[in-house]
Fold each of these.
Amino acid sequence: MRYIRYSLFFLTLLLLTPAFTVILAFLRIFGLAWTPGGHIGKFWANALLLSAGVKVQTFGMENVHPYKKYIFVSNHVSHFDTLVLLAKLPPSYRFLAKRELFQIPFFGWALALAGHIKVSRGRKGDIRKILDQTEKVLHRGTSVHFFAEATRSPDGKIYPFKPGAFLLAQETRVPIIPVGLRGTRDILPKGAMLPRPTQAILTVGKPFMVPEDGSRLAEVLESARKTVSALSGQELGTSRPKSSHQS
C-alpha cells in the first residue's frame, strides 16, 4: 500500500505540473494567466495532498473575507507548508519563494507564470525590491503571503520575525492575518525522502492593522510571533542557531 501511495503521488506530480505549466503559458500569451493561476495552484496542491494521503483541517476561515486583500504571515517548518497554504487559503493570493525554486523545470516556470514573487536572499536593497513587487500584487486586489521567519525553522521553534510583511502592511494599509501551520513537519520529517500520510492543521487568526508611524514595529512583530505560536502550537525561540539550514 505504501508503494502504491508513493507511486500515485509522483504520478500526480509528474503529470499535473507540466500540464498546468503549459496551460498557464498559453493563458499568459493572451494576458489571462493571473486569475486562473490561483485556481490552478489550488487544484494542483489539493491533488498532491490527496495523492500523498495528507488530510488538512482548517479553522478560522471566517476571518478571511473572500473579496478583501490581506497580508498573510505564518510559521514555516516543512516543504509541505506551501502546498497546505495553496490548497486551503483563498485562490486570490501569491506567496514569496526563494529564487532557486523558480529554476526547477515546470514547477518553477509555473510559479513565475502564476505571478508568485521571487526572492533573492542576502542582496543589499532586496527588501525594497520585494516590497515593490508585493505592492504591485496588492494593487491588483490579490493577497500576499510571507513566511514571517523567512526560512524554515531548524528545530520546530518560532524565531524572531523579519519586518518585511509588516513594513508592507504599514505602507499599504492592508491588514495582516496571522496563520498557524501544525503537523506539516510530520508529513516530511527530517531525513525523509517521501511524504507520509498524516493530518495537518491550518488555523487562521484575526486580521489587524500595523500602526502607520512605525514607532511600535518591534512590539507588533513580537505580538504577531506570539499569536502565530499560539495558532501553531510551536514554542518561541530566542535566536536562530547559526548552523541551521537556510531554505
Amino acid sequence: MIRYHHTLTLIDNNSAAQAALSKSLQLAKKTKAKVTALKIDRPCSNLLSRLGLIPKNALDPMLFVKKLLTQYQRQGVEVEIKTIKNVKDHVAILNETNNSNYDLVVINNNHHNALLNEWVPSCEDHLLRDCLQPVMIVGNKSWQSQGHILTALDTSGSNLEHKQLNQCLLDDSQQLANLLDNDIHLLNCYQLDNWSMSVTPEKHYSSESDQKQLLWQRLLDSAKGRQFAQDHLHLEQGLPDYVIPHIAHQCNANLLIIGAGEHHGLISELKGHTSSVIVEQLKCDILAIKPQLH
C-alpha cells in the first residue's frame, strides 16, 4: 500500500484553482504526510500584464497558494515549497523524484487536445510512462464524502504476479476509501476470444457464456474476503478506453484507481497506452499505480 509519508505536487502557474496542491493538502491532513510543492519559475507571458493593463499581482497564483498553505499549516500539515528554474513540468517532477524519496505524485489533469496528444506526449503521459511513484491526476471536482471509488482490475492474467498486482490495487483502494469515507466499485472489462476466423481453431474452444462465467468467477475471487455489494461489481465487454470512463460516469466516481501497465515497442512509445487515453476522457480523478512497485 502507499505509505503517504511524503507527497510531491506542482503549483499551477496559470490558475488560482490549484487542484493538485489542494488535494495533496487534503490527503496530507488525513495521513499526516509532508507535502513538497514545486514552483517552476517561468517568465510572465501574459500580453495584458506585459502591457501594464492588468496588475501582475492580479494574475499571481501565489496569492491563493499562500492563503491555502496557511490554512493547512495551521492544521498541522508540513509543507515545503521548492522553486526551480524554467523546465518542463515532467522534467521537474522526474528530477525531484530521482533525488528524494516520495510516496505519491499529484498533478493537474490538463485535458490536452486528443489529436495532438497522439504524437506529442503530455506531462501526464511522461509520468505514467517514466515515474516510478504512484501518480494521482486530479481535476477541480471536489471529493464527495460517502462517494465512490472505481477500481479497474484486469483478471485475464492468471499468473501469481498479476494476481498480486490486483490485490495491491484493492489494498490501495480500501486505504483511500477509508480516508475519503467512500465505498468501492470493481470493474473488469474484457474482449471475448473469437475463433470463427481462425485457420487453426483451438481444440478446447470456450463458448462466450463459458468465457464470461470464467471472468465473472475471477472477479469474485479478486473480491473474496472483502465486502462488496453485488451491484458494485461490474463485468463489461469492450475496450478499456471506452468502458472505464463510461462506468466511472455511471457510478459518479470520485476517483479511478488503475494499474499503469508496461508497454513496449516504437508505436507504444509514440502513441502512449490505455491509461493515458483514459486520462483524457475522465472527469473524475485518477490514481495510476505501477506494477513494478509491487
